[in-house]
Amino acid sequence: MKKLMILLFAFAFTFSAQAQVPSVGLKPGDTAIPFKLKNIDGKMVGLNDYANLRGVILIFTCNHCPFSVAYQDRIVALNKKYASLGFPVIAINSNDAEAYPEDSYDNMIIRAAEKKFTFPYLLDDTQVIAKAYGAVRTPHVYLLQHADNGFAVRYVGAIDDNSDDPAAVKIKYVENAITEIMKGKVVSEPFTKAIGCTIKWKK
Is 138 inside a domain boundary? Predict the structure, then answer.
C-alpha cells in the first residue's frame, strides 16, 4: 500500500510539473524568436514590424487572470511612458479560450476597448509562441532590445515587486531594466520570478 501511495504521488507530481509547460524557453542573452499573430483589429502584427525601434516590452497576459487584471493599468502606463522612447508594449494572450471563454478573441477586443489599450493585443491561438518563449504565467514579461540579428532578450520575469498594490511597489523591474539599457549598461537584474496565474494550456 505504501509503495502504491508513493507511485501515485510521483505520478501526480509528474503530471503537475508537465502542466507547467514549458520547461525550456528563452533566457536573458538569447535571441528573441520572431512571430506574427492576429491583433484585436484583425491585422497581423509581427516582431519584425518593430525592427527600427530600440526594443519591445513583450508581455504574455490575458483577460481573466486576477494578476493580469491587476496589472492592466500598469501595462497601459508602461506603453504610455516608453513607446515614445522606442520601447513599446506588445501583449500576447496564449490561454485556451475553449476552457476559459473570457480569454476569447472577441473578449480580448472588448477588454482592450474598456481599458483603452494603446498597444497590440495579439492572439497566440496555437500557443506556439508562449511555448517557444517559455512563458508560464500571466503576466510574464520579456524585455527585448534591438540587436544586429533581430532582438535580444535582456530581462525576463515580473513587471514589479507588488502585484497587489501599485502604490506599494518598491522595485520596478521592467522600468529599471529599460533605464539601464538606455544608459548603455548591462541589466543588473536580468531575471525575476514571474508572479501570476499559470497559462492555460490546451489538452
Answer: yes
> For residue 30, what pLDDT is reported?
97
The upper half-sphere exposure of residue 1, i.e. CA atoms within 13 Å in the direction of its Cβ, equals: 0
Q: What does the block give as the cell for 158?
A: 515580473
Report the C-alpha gap between 97 and 141 in whole angstroms.
21
C-alpha cell at 39: 491583433
Cell numbers of 114, please?
474598456
Find all residues with CB under 8 Å of 98, minimum gap 6, and list them.
202
**Integer CA distances (angstroms), 16 to 10, 20, 105, 130, 164, in order:** 10, 7, 28, 18, 26
Q: Write the DSSP string, 70-129.
A: HHHHHHHHHHHHHGGGT--EEEEE-S-TTT-GGGSHHHHHHHHHHHT--S-EEE-TT-HH
Identity at 132, one-letter amino acid code: A
The structure's pTM equals 0.89
Residue-wise pLDDT for 20-39, tens only, equals: 434 479 999 999 999 999 99
Nearest C-alpha neighbor of 192 from the set 149, 148, 147, 143: 143
Report the CATH number at residue 172. Answer: 3.40.30.10
- Find the DSSP H helices in the chain: 2-19, 66-82, 105-115, 128-133, 173-182
Residue 114 placed within a domain: yes
Report residue 19's pLDDT band, with 50, 70 and 90 as the boundaries: very low
The total of structural domains in the chain comes to 1
